[in-house]
Amino acid sequence: MTETLTIDGMSCDHCEQTVEDAVAELDGVTDARADETTDTLEIEGDPDLAAVHAAVEDAGYEPR
Fold first, then answer.
1. DSSP secondary structure string, the chain?
2. Any idea what the CATH number is for the domain that residue 19 is in?
3. pTM of the predicted model, to two decimals?
């Protein structure tokens, strides 16, 4: 399953990597790809979306 979220606050490659790293370590995530140009995060797998939102927020960004 692929889930795409909008993420506010990413402005560079470092931001993308920070979001990807925060989400990639969650149970059920097999891949995570952030793109600051489209403000999106694509997640492969079957993670708990509440945990994804919490991880993104803990990393300093705003999921929608």
1. -EEEEEEES--SHHHHHHHHHHHHTSTTEEEEEEETTTTEEEEEE---HHHHHHHHHHTT-EE-
2. 3.30.70.100
3. 0.94
